[in-house]
Amino acid sequence: MDFAKPLPTYLVKRYHGWKATTYSENQFWYRRLADEGQRPRAMVISCCDSRVHVTSIFGADQGEFFIHRNIANLVPPYAPDGDHHGTSAAIEYAVTVLKVAHLIVLGHSQCGGVQGCIDMCKGQAPQLEAKESFVGRWMDILKPKFDLVVDIEDSTEQARQFERQTVVASLENLMTFPFVSSSVEEGALSLHGLWTDIGEGGLECFDPHQKKFVPV
Ligand SMILES: [Zn+2]
């Protein structure tokens, strides 16, 4: 199999630039992280979208966040069925081994995965409904929440509200994991739901009592 090609030149240049500046200025810190292991205080679950810059938003350095990214920042329900569950594996490791104190789900505006789910719910995306569509089957996690936004006429507003529902669905599904719910009950772990507006740089936090998102 000849699938591996040389790394693009621009990446090679950027790497050497990083090694000569950021790394060299923080060598001690990198070595300490390597020797002592990671002790992140928080896990973040965000979308794969390249515009969601988790570490930049929170000014986080290496070693601070345990980050998992997937399409539309979704957490599936707890399903110990022996299958391959990448998201669930990351959550299990963060909560039971790293013992993070905070678990943050970060949704975002203009989410392509959410738009795909809307199209699917409106019967406009047969390609996503195919059994072979990994994206479609992944977005099935969100489908039950469409009822909450189905009556919103403005399509942009509908998408923004549905994006916020990815966060709520993930928080609800997180609590179906026994090791998450027990850590939350013990007070060792707290869950946080956030949604960021990419164009505006805005950040909203889900208030579970008011059941709505409020600006941070
Ligand atoms: Zn997204």
From TrEMBL:
The keyword Cell wall biogenesis/degradation does not apply. Pfam families: Pro_CA (PF00484). Reversible hydration of carbon dioxide. Belongs to the beta-class carbonic anhydrase family. Keywords: Lyase, Metal-binding, Zinc. Its EC number is 4.2.1.1. Its cofactor is Zn(2+). The keyword Zinc applies. This is Carbonic anhydrase. It catalyses: hydrogencarbonate + H(+) = CO2 + H2O. Gene3D superfamilies: Carbonic anhydrase. It is an enzyme of class 4 (lyase).
